[in-house]
Every structure is written in C-alpha cells, then in structure tokens.
Structure of CN hydrolase domain-containing protein:
Amino acid sequence: MVFQARNAAIANSYFVGSINRVGTEVFPNPFTSGDGKPQHADFGHFYGSSYFSAPDASCTPSLSRYRDGLLISDMDLNLCRQLKDKWGFRMTARYDMYADMLSQYVKPDFEPQVIADPLLKKKTA
C-alpha cells in the first residue's frame, strides 16, 4: 500500500490519504472467501499504518500498526499547482487531439488502424 499511494500522489500532483484499520475483526456468522478453504468467522488482521503522501513524494510519519490513532496534517494545496507547472505535462498535452481520438474510438463501427512491421512479415515459400 505504501508505494501505490505515494506514486499516485506524484503522478497526479495531488495529496493522497492512505487509511487502514488496526486490530482483528471477527463476524458472528462464518463465511467463505471463495478460495476453497473451509468457512471461517475471522476477517483477518488489519495493519494500520495510515499516512498522507504529497505530490512532491514526501510522506507523513505513519500511525501505529497496533493502536487506534488520529492523523492531522497541513496540506499546502498550492504545492499541487507548483509541481504541475514544474513538470510541465499540461504544456505538452494535446487535449483536443485526445478528445477527437476518443470520440472516434467509442463509435460502434470503429476499426483500428493496424500497421504491421514489414521486417516481421514471414516469407512464404
């Protein structure tokens, strides 16, 4: 869970809150997990360690893995804009072209353009 949230924050230039419970949950009625194993009533152990990731790859310290906790953090939303400007992805984006391509792809009669590499063609005898 640590890397996915942090990577999402970096790639999308926004803050991500990664939350998880602590402890073990047991249900009153047994259930199956669909994995072929016998029924059980315990849902399993939750690992905790909630934290916030920032778009600049920084993270807050994680909460406990064993006790309930509350994490409060300041988030400078201007950092999102600063990093978007620094990386410049929107500067080279072609949103008008993406919209045109998408409108073509969703049509029911769409046929993709397939370009074959001539060097990969098999020779026939």
